[in-house]
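User: Reviewer 2 asked us to show a designed sequence for the structure in our supplementary figure. I'm pasting the structure tokens here. Could you produce the per-position amino acids so we can include them in the response letter?
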């Protein structure tokens, strides 16, 4: 028996075929389901998900292979086999962590392939109806900033879903790829007001940075596994579009909520 789940992420529809009850429970808790019976259009992404693969994540890299009409991403705890346009995939996972990371891998590649948006390793918080992104390396304080921002609405605490709109504006959509804050945001999306690169400090201040510096800082925050020069060029162009569209800052902050005083 395979379970079925239809969901929407941002503006894209995803149809899952799921092998086990465990995986079905994980996916239904993470994604909002919707009735696709009246939708005559095929989903944007179709994914088959299988259990009992590999071993726990060991901090090893993702290996990428190209086999004819397939791209294959392999990590200790998951294997992702996808068509070159990322619209059809098979996913073999070890546990819930593997499932989340394999989904991030697939969806990020799908967004970049279509030049639709980016998944960025960051948190994002709504203040005064606008979204503010907080990015940085591991341990910089992305999840901490999200925690300290409550009761402000949280659009993401780990993987921010940034989409480019037809009119050239940038919106942040509620991200199902969450680390600790599992509750969906009360807002499905909000316009992006700016990007902050986090620096822990005894001072609390915000410094505007040049677009070229912002681009360099943003590039390694995107969930992206390099395997193709054209896709890499697309990713760089999308990052440039993002930093051209909104201001960027270095945010020096302590582990308390006083940083909101220099933002709002």
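Assistant: Here is a per-position design you can include in the supplement:
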């Amino acid at each position: 028996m395979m379970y079925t789940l239809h969901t929407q992420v941002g503006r894209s529809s995803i149809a899952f075929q799921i092998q086990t009850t465990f995986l079905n429970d994980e996916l239904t808790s993470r994604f909002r389901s919707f009735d696709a019976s009246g939708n005559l259009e095929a989903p944007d992404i179709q994914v088959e998900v299988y259990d009992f693969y590999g071993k726990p994540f060991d901090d090893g890299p993702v290996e990428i292979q190209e086999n004819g009409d397939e791209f294959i991403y392999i990590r200790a705890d998951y294997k992702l086999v996808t068509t070159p346009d990322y619209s059809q995939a098979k996913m073999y996972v070890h546990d819930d962590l593997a499932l989340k990371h394999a989904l991030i891998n697939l969806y990020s590649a799908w967004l970049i392939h279509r030049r639709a948006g980016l998944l960025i390793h960051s948190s994002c918080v709504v203040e005064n109806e606008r979204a503010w992104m907080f990015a940085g390396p591991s341990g910089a304080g992305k999840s901490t900033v999200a925690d300290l921002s409550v009761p402000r609405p949280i659009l993401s605490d780990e993987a921010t879903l940034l989409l480019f709109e037809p009119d050239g504006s940038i919106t942040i959509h509620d991200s199902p790829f969450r680390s600790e804050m599992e509750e969906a945001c009360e807002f499905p999306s909000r316009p992006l007001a700016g990007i902050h690169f986090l620096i822990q400090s005894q001072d609390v201040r915000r410094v505007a940075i040049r677009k070229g510096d912002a681009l360099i800082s943003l590039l390694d925050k995107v969930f992206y596994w390099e395997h193709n020069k054209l896709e890499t060029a697309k990713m760089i162009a999308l990052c440039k579009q993002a930093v051209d569209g909104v201001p960027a800052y270095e945010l020096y902050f302590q582990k308390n909520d006083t940083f909101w005083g220099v933002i709002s």
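For the response letter, you might also mention the following. Residues 157 and 250 are 19 Å apart (CA to CA). Helices lie at 21-30, 96-113, 142-149, 211-219, 229-245, 260-263.
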